[in-house]
Amino acid sequence: MARLAGKIAIITGAAQGMGASHARRFVAEGAKVVLTDILEEKGAKLAAELGENAYFVKHDVTNPEEWAKVVAAAEEKFGPVNILVNNAGISVAISILQMSLEQYRRIVDINQVSVFIGMKMVIPSMQRAGGGSIVNISSINGIVGGAIGYTDTKFAVRGMTKAAAIECSYYGIRVNSVHPGVIATPMIEQEDAKAAIQEFAKSIPMKRIAEPEEVTNLVLFLASDEASYTTGAEFVVDGGITAI
């Protein structure tokens, strides 16, 4: 039996990378999925590829009004939402001395505030559905230190997840965070990042970076009823780097 049969999911940042991997697997496992992203052409193309059980909505995750439209579209197209994957985010590596306040606030809005808005907007739909699962994508930099701004927001996602899990347990909603290490996505394929990533991979105990599907496997478990007693927890997918 499909592991997400009858489930309705919203996945942000779903046009490419890990989000696209999650969307493909969720549809394959029986879910109806609303894909959201600011990358309209890529997102619409992927939804068309996935067929009638996928629907794309262009979406700025920092905008509460757009979140309301996404939830309304999901309910109108498929029904009340069972699963939310807060996957959208940006990676920025600027020193604290060089980063402007405007740049810092942009990172906070996209990586942190959007997760709060997403949970706030989707929880009522999950209550109508009789419960659900929220999976917040953080990073290993929500476990250990890294670049200013990025690390701050990823730690915040970890903390928000725990706070929300306590409250949402009363609603039959589970909330967990996933902390990927270096994953083969467009985010790390930029020319100025390739050499640094290749060097970093040498320090990973498993001596390689991960494929998006390796993160998707965990996200799928947390989204499914198989994780029915799992909430408020963080799950690391990093090839062992945080174990050093």
Record the SSE blueprint.
Elements: E1 8-12, H1 17-28, E2 32-37, H2 40-50, E3 54-58, H3 64-77, E4 83-86, H4 101-129, E5 132-137, H5 150-168, E6 173-180, H6 191-201, H7 212-223, E7 234-237
Helix pairs in contact: 1-7, 3-4, 4-5
How would you characterize this protein structure?
By secondary structure, the protein is of the alpha/beta class. It has helices at 17-28, 40-50, 64-77, 101-129, 150-168, 191-201, 212-223, and strands at residues 8-12, 32-37, 54-58, 83-86, 132-137, 173-180, 234-237. It has seven helices and seven strands. The protein has a seven-stranded parallel beta sheet, sandwiched between helices. Strand 2 (32-37), helix 2 (40-50) and strand 3 (54-58) form a beta-alpha-beta unit. The longest helix has 29 residues, at 101-129. It starts with 7 loop residues before the first strand and ends in a 7-residue tail after the last strand.
Write a compact overview of the structure shown.
The chain has seven helices and seven strands; from the N terminus they run βαβαβαβαβαβααβ. It has helices spanning 17-28, 40-50, 64-77, 101-129, 150-168, 191-201, 212-223, and strands at residues 8-12, 32-37, 54-58, 83-86, 132-137, 173-180, 234-237.
What are its keywords?
single chain; alpha/beta; globular; seven-stranded parallel β-sheet; 244 residues; 7 helices
